[in-house]
Design a protein that fits this description.
Shape: globular
Structural class: alpha+beta
CATH class of the largest domain: Alpha Beta
Number of strands: 22
CATH architecture of the largest domain: 2-Layer Sandwich
Number of domains: 3
Helix content: 25-40%
Number of helices: 11
Radius of gyration: 20 Å
Largest sheet: 9 strands, antiparallel
CATH topology of the largest domain: D-amino Acid Aminotransferase, Chain A, domain 1
Length: 381
C-alpha cells in the first residue's frame, strides 16, 4: 500500500529539521515525495529545502499529533520526540516509522540494556540506579561509565567513574552504570528493515572519536577488522532489527574488546553519523535505504563502491557566532573529496557543521587525504 502511495503524492512528515533531515530530503526529492518538516528552530537546516516547514516543539503532544494527522508516513531525524502523540497517531492509522515503541525504547538507555539482556544480545555488564547516592553502593563495580537513562545526546550525559573520588561529579538522576570495558575499536553497522520484513546491513565501519568532545571525528569504511568480527557485528545488528521489528534504518554502535568480543554500546533508530559516507561510498545511501524501508519498497544494495573516510566538520574551539569556512576551495581541488555543509548559520565549539567524504582506491589513501582535510578546513567566526 505504501509503495502504491509512493507514486501518488505520498506526503512524508519528518520530526526534526536538522542535518539528518536535510540529507533525507535531498534523497526524497529524487523520488518526488512531497514533505513537511517540524522543528522548533525557525532557521533549521531543512527550512529552505522542504515543501512545508512548521515551527513547533516536537516534544509537545498536541503539536506532534496535529502535524502527524496531515501526513501519510511520519518519521524522525531525532529520537527525542513526544511518544504519546505517536502512539495516538498509530492507533488512528498513521504509519509511524520507526514505530513509537522503538523510539520509546531508545529514549531510555536502561530499557535498551534490558532489551539486550532479554534478547541475548551481547553488551557490557550493567546496573541501574535512581540517584547519585547509589553510586557509592557500586564501589566493587568500578571502573564504570555512568549514562543518564534519558536526555543524553552526542556525548552529553556520560561520565567515566574510575574511582570513588569521581562520585562527586556524578549525575543525580536515573542512570545506567555500565562496566568499563577495555576495547580496541569502536565500530558501527547501519541495518535496515522494511515493513515486509526484508533486512539488509551495510558493511561495518570504524569510528575514531574526538577525545575532548566525545564526537565522531573520523569514520573509516570498510573497518579494518577480521572477517570473524565483521560477521559477528553484522549478525548482531540484523538480530536487533529483527527482534525489535523496526521499520527504517537502525545504527548499531559496538565495541570490539581486547578479547575479540563484539559488544553493543548504543542504538539509534534513524539515519546516523556513522552512515554519512554511504552517500558517495555505497551503491545505496543510508538515506535512500531509510526511505525504501519506511515506504515498504525493496531495499537497495549496500555494496561499497570505493573505500572512503568521513570527516566531521566541527566548530573550532573558542569560536561562537556566524560561521565562516576556511579551506573549502583547497579541499575541493583534491580528487575524491565531497563536501556537505549543513546550512547552520551559527557555529560554536564542536558543533557539527558539516562533513567531508573522501573516496579513494584504498582505505590507506583515503585516510591520508582525510588527515589533510582535517587540517585544511576550519569552521570559524
Amino acid at each position: 500500500m505504501a509503495a502504491k502511495k509512493f507514486y501518488n503524492n505520498l506526503k512524508l512528515g519528518i520530526l526534526g529539521g536538522g542535518q539528518l533531515g536535510r540529507m533525507l530530503l535531498q534523497k526524497a526529492a529524487d523520488y518526488n515525495i512531497s514533505n513537511s518538516v517540524l522543528d522548533p528552530d525557525p532557521n533549521a537546516p531543512c527550512k529552505n529545502i522542504c515543501d512545508e516547514f512548521i515551527v513547533g516543539d516536537f516534544n509537545d503532544y498536541k503539536t506532534v499529533y496535529e502535524f502527524g494527522k496531515k501526513v501519510d508516513v511520519l518519521t524522525i531525524e531525532i529520537e527525542h520526540v513526544n511518544v504519546e502523540a505517536l502512539e495516538a497517531l498509530e492507533k488512528e492509522g498513521v504509519k509511524v516509522f520507526p514505530q513509537s515503541n522503538i523510539i520509546k525504547l531508545v529514549q531510555d538507555k536502561g530499557a535498551q540494556k534490558i532489551f539486550y539482556r532479554t534478547n541475548g544480545i551481547p553488551t557490557a555488564e550493567f546496573h541501574l540506579i535512581e540517584n547519585k547516592k547509589q553510586l557509592s553502593e557500586q564501589k566493587k563495580f568500578l571502573p564504570y561509565v555512568q549514562k543518564l537513562r534519558r536526555g543524553g545526546y552526542d556525548g552529553k550525559g556520560v561520565q567515566v567513574m574510575k574511582s570513588e573520588s569521581d562520585f562527586e561529579k556524578g549525575f543525580d538522576a536515573p542512570s545506567v552504570l555500565e562496566k568499563f570495558i577495555p576495547f580496541e575499536k569502536e565500530i558501527a553497522v547501519i541495518v535496515a528493515r522494511n515493513e515486509s520484513g526484508e533486512v539488509k546491513s551495510f558493511p561495518v565501519v570504524e569510528m575514531e572519536f574526538n577525545p575532548e568532545a566525545n564526537l565522531v571525528e573520523f569514520l573509516f569504511s570498510p573497518a579494518t577488522i577480521s572477517k570473524e568480527i565483521e560477521l559477528k557485528a553484522e549478525d548482531i545488528a540484523k538480530k536487533i532489527a529483527t527482534d525489535s521489528q523496526i521499520v527504517g534504518v537502525l545504527a548499531v554502535e559496538m565495541f570490539v574488546t581486547t578479547k575479540g568480543e563484539v559488544l553493543v554500546n548504543e542504538i539509534a533508530p534513524r539515519p546516523h553519523n556513522s552512515g554519512h559516507q554511504t552517500i558517495e561510498g555505497n551503491i545505496t545511501s543510508q538515506y535512500e535505504q531509510h526511505l525504501r524501508a519506511i515506504l515498504d519498497l525493496p531495499l537497495g544494495s549496500t555494496e561499497i563502491i570505493s573505500p572512503s573516510v568521513m570527516v566531521n566538520l566541527l566548530g573550532e574551539k573558542d569560536h561562537s557566532g556566524e560561521a565562516k569556512y576556511e579551506g573549502l576551495e583547497k579541499a575541493l581541488a583534491m580528487e575524491g573529496v565531497y563536501i556537505h555543509l549543513y546550512g547552520k548559520k551559527n557555529t560554536k565549539p564542536f558543533r557539527k557543521m558539516g562533513h567531508v567524504t573522501i573516496a579513494a582506491k584504498t582505505i590507506e589513501d583515503a585516510k591520508k587525504k582525510a588527515i589533510l582535510i582535517k587540517e585544511i578546513i576550519r569552521v570559524i567566526t
